[in-house]
Amino acid sequence: MDRARDLESIIVAAHALTRVAALETRNEAPAAQWRTLAILRERGPLRIGELARLSRITQPGVTRLIGGMADAGLVAREPDPDDSRAVRVAATERGEQAYAAWRVQLVEALLPRFADLSDSEWQALRTSAELLTQRMADARPANGEESSAR
C-alpha cells in the first residue's frame, strides 16, 4: 500500500468505527448534535454561520439543530461581543456533561470488539490515535482560509 491508500484506510475505518459505535450505543440523539458539542468544546462559542461551516451542515439546518439543543439545555445563545446584532452559541454545563457521557457510552459499546487485542496491537492503536490527534489539533482549511473562531 502507498501512503495515500494507508490514509484512506484510516479515514474509512474511522467512519465505520463511529457508525458502529453510534448504532451500538442505541443513543437516539443525532450525530450532528455530538459533532456540534465537540466543535463548541474545542473552539468555544461560535456564530451560527461558522458552526454550520465547521459542522458541514446548512445554516438553516444548524439553526434548527441549535433550537432543539437549546430547548434541551445543551447549548445557550449569547450576544456576540464583537457584533451586537449577532449571536454566538456556547455549550452549557449540561451539554458538556451530556457530551462526556456520550463518549463513555461509545467506549463501553466498542471495548468488547477490541478485548482480544495484544499489548502490541493496543500500542499500535495508541500511537495511531496520538499521531492523528497531533495532526488534527491545528487543522486549518486546505484553502488557507483562517477560521474566525474564538
Automatic annotation (TrEMBL):
**Know the name of this protein?**
HTH marR-type domain-containing protein
The lineage's top-level taxon is Bacteria
Ranges where the HTH marR-type domain occurs: 1-134
Please give the SMART domains that the UniProt record associates with this protein: HTH_MARR
Under PANTHER family, the record lists:
CONSERVED PROTEIN (PTHR39515), HTH-TYPE TRANSCRIPTIONAL REGULATOR RV0880 (PTHR39515:SF2)
Q: Which InterPro entries match?
A: HTH-type_Bedaq_tolerance (IPR052526), HTH_MarR-typ (IPR000835), WH-like_DNA-bd_sf (IPR036388), WH_DNA-bd_sf (IPR036390)
Q: Which GO terms describe its molecular function?
A: DNA-binding transcription factor activity
